[in-house]
Amino acid sequence: MGRIARVPMAIRILAILLVPALLVPLFPQVVYPVFVMKVLCFALFAVAFNLLTGYTGLVSFGHAAFFGWAGYTTGQMMLLFGPSGLPPELAILFGVAMAAAVGYVIGGLAIRRTGIYFAMITLALSQVAYFMAVQVRWTRGEDGMQGIPRGKFLGLVDLSVDNHMYYFTLAVFVLGFLFVYRVIHSPFGQILKAIRDNSPRAVSLGYDTDRCKLLAFVLSAAVAGLAGSLKALVLQLVALNDVSLPTSTEVLLMTLLGGLGTVWGPILGATLVVSLQNYLATLGDVVTIVIGLIFVLCVSFFRRGFVGEWLALLQWSKARGAAAAVTVGAASGQRKGGDAGDVDSAPVGRTT
Amino acid sequence: MFDISYQSLLAQLLVGLINGCFYAILSMGLAIIFGLLNIVNFTHGAQFMMAAFLAWIGFTQLPQWLGESVQINFWVALLLAPVIVGGVGIVIERTLLKRLYHLDHLYGLLLTFGIALMMEGGFRYFYGISGVGYEPPELLQGGFDLDFMYLPGYRAFVVVASLSICLLTWYLFERTRLGAMLRAGTENPRLLQAFGVNVPVMITLTYGFGVALAGVAGVLAAPVMQINPLMGSNLLNIVFAVVVIGGLGSIMGAIVTGLALGLLEGLTKVFYPEASTVVVFVVMAVVLLVRPAGLFGKEK
Lengths: 352, 300
Prior knowledge:
The structure holds two protein chains of two kinds. By secondary structure, chain A is mainly alpha-helical.
């Protein structure tokens, strides 16, 4: 009953959010559609990141490797075959496959260690992915790829029209989001949370935790690749910055700020960070300082992120209400209080 | 491929050895901090960079600001910069890190990472990313003409100084009474506190000491590296790979692994230059496949 009641709630929120999202192209003077598309790409990236870091408890410092290499692959496919040659959905598929492959290699090595070592390994290996992007010829090194054609969706819809591209981006985002949502709420997703919360116990229950972690890693990398491919088509450029540490940092910040291990946190976080960058873009180096400051404030004062703290507050007020009622069922009542999808936030917030 | 002169081989090995010295000091500092604080100090690279900048500021900027008579030379900077960097570290530990000890390691990592970003952003704001240069002290300019190679004086000094620092630190931690207390604190801080040792102060000073080590490395590196805001994080990426290979469990492990990987990098530059940027990471991948716990690893 709990699960059945939950799913429509998340879908309901999604439906409500979709209404303004669908109207965006009608009011370009209010919000710039390309800006919203960029937000959607990074939101999908953060959702993918959250699958690994929020729900499996493995902090990755290297997600830019998947985002960037998928973007390069998609971009190269579109550039090779020209605007009417290859349908963009196929180019995206190639990008996702590339990201999954890179994810398999990096993930396969990184899951051999846990905790801080995991973070350091992903950081180091994504550095290798960056060096390769600098050295390989077809990524065009320092220049990056520019003028990537968007092509025709299914050979019919011309995506070079911004409004068409907008709905395409929105559709891909919703599909990616629902996919990750489904993974999190599947039995497999429950195993991931078990690994996050108590890995030795998950092992003792007979789960092959290494295989689950690797699968979570590859899925997360693939969806991050989907976001990267989409971004390559939206902005029509891929540059070294997309595979570098600052991008890995940004996605970590987005997820942390919104709320690790919450369904909506990454989306809120991505919206905030992308908007912030938009406002501060003219200030240059100050952005780095501000991002660092947000990290420090976030870790010091609201570790659960905006959505996580909000859910905790809801839970707390419900628990208080239940305690006031002093009914026998009060204790079980507070455990069900997760109406926005998930209460199991604060993945790395346990004391050790 | 094999017609490499003996000269260039030795020259690259020396460069590798110097890099190895920096890897060794930095990973040793990380190991010391991790042992007692259970935090991987992502600010380490920024603190290294900060010390290099402080040395440069003292030498070139201070005379401009305060008049010719106020100039901090290399030797004073070698003492002063680590003290300042360590002091800033102690303030960070007291105000921010201290509040995270009861939480998962990862929060400490994220916090120190944020501080590193702020430091780097700050130095970038004031000094740009192109970087500045720093002359070796007069005493060490020039070099020795050994029969088989030319040995620049400053580089020789860096190697000797770094190795002495490594050995002294090792001695301090492994062979003295203070070191025994620190190791006891790593094993069981509560029991140590019950014996009357002021563990929180010990933790603070340990963080300051580990950070000051990064500061020493930063000042030593100032004349041989381009001083720029990202010099530390570029180095730290490699140091993390070193730490994954060697483990954070032992000081000698950190020293040996750091030196060995520096030399290996130097050798790669001679025989296959394209791979020299990634060779440390390749070794890390192999170690993870063959011996996941690391060479000196006792997984915590």
